[in-house]
Amino acid sequence: LSPLSFQSLLVLGLVAAVCLGLNLLFLTVYLICLCCCKRDQDPESKRPHSCCVTWMAVTAGLICCAAVGVGFYGNSETNDGVFQLLYALDHANQTLTGIDSVVASTTLQMQGALEQHLARLNELLASRGDYVQTLKFTQQLAGSIVLQLQGLPAWQGVSTELTELSGQVAYVEYYRWLAYLLFFILVLTVCLLACLGLAKHSRCLLLLMLCCGLLMLVLSWASMAVDTAAAVGTSDFCVAPDKFIMNQTDDEISAEVVHYYLYCDQSLSSPFQQVWGGGHPLWCCLGLGGVCDCAHSPLQALTVFQRSLTTMQIQIQGLIQYALPLFPTAEKDLLGVQQLLNSSETSLHQLTALLDCRGLHKDYLDGLIGICYDGVEGLLYLGLFSLLAAAAFSTVICAAPRAWQQLAGRCRDYDDMDEEDPFNPAARRMAAHRPPRGQLRSFCSYSSSLGSQSSLQPPAQTVSNAPVSEYMNQAVLFGGNPRYENVPLIGRGSPPPTYSPSMRATYLAVTDEHVRHRGDFPA
Prior knowledge:
Elements: H1 3-40, H2 50-124, H3 129-150, H4 156-200, H5 203-239, H6 241-248, H7 255-263, H8 282-285, H9 301-322, H10 331-355, H11 357-416, H12 425-432, H13 446-451, H14 466-479, H15 501-520
Transmembrane segments: 6-32, 53-73, 177-198, 205-224, 379-400
InterPro entries: Tweety (IPR006990)
Keywords: Cell membrane, Chloride, Chloride channel, Glycoprotein, Ion channel, Ion transport, Membrane, Transmembrane, Transmembrane helix, Transport
């Protein structure tokens, strides 16, 4: 990175830190204002804002789910872009390795097997000076091919650097993808913990939710800083990738070759292959004989390879045609030289295809598209995820004090309840742990309730005790202890307890009879 780019990344990191500080300052001011408003309120007006807490929790959950969805998409896009870059690097590395392999194999053939065949042919054809001169010329052409192949750029260093770069990028991308995946799971876990704390009305879960919310808030802004810095740094590279690559190129690779592969302009000629530009014979410009000026004949490596190989094939074909009938023992070596030349021609075509700019230029464009489009797009989505996650956890932190206030209000309401109230659920739970009371008499029973109004009824009114025992059994069955009422059930204006079908029928019959008897007496 240039000093200017490094300073830009530092500025972005400072901006993210300032945003985190402002966010924490806002939360602190909010909590202080909430505490002050709570003190200024009258004790009678301090009621929990359950609706506000619920809506804040719902909002935080929705924002959290949206953030995780955006984060998964951004993480996948970034991963796809990086793997497209890795594929391009591997393919380019295979191309460069193939160039070195073809050059090495062709050089070995020219220096090893071909020289051996030519040495034996010199012995067999020693009696004919013209044939020996042809073999010597062929050997010089083979030496010129080896010399031109050695003048090609050595791609081994570039291939090694690409291999190291590919390994480092793959290593960093794996742990980056895994870290974000764990971060998404942690975000969902904290949101689930917040919902569980609000649903269970647990102070411990609320405290844990508050601490985790603060931690996730800091992590969200840190992720925002990393994503923004990575996106900006990648964008700086994508603006002028050719300058960056040319600055990083090894000295063994000329600027002309790098420019050829980066731009692949069809109007420009290949630095490895040009059309024959001189009016001099090939062996003159190769220094094989004669005096000539070849400064204006830009022969390049593949051109020399191709023309030298063609000349050698013509020379060997002439020897096969004219020398073989006179020297039959030279057939094996002549056919061997011809086979080597045919193999070298195949290698020439492979080398021409590998050195063509279109293959490496396509890999170069694929890598740029992967990192500059998919990669940067994924980083921007990850930055949006960080913003949404920060907003969600800020909402969770704002909801925690109100939820705590709501729990405190519920505790005060339970403390203010009358334990003797038969409709208080807490009193019923407490009654289950008390020892059973002794049997009270008819003043608290159903029969006593009827007897308390005997002055308003005729003496002949009698009621069976069966419903009373059934009512007591029902009370023991559902309440754990018999319910004793200190007010008569008839005419007291309060809701009666739950009756069984038979008890309800008996109660309605007695009530109707009671009303009918009261109508017989004058008021």
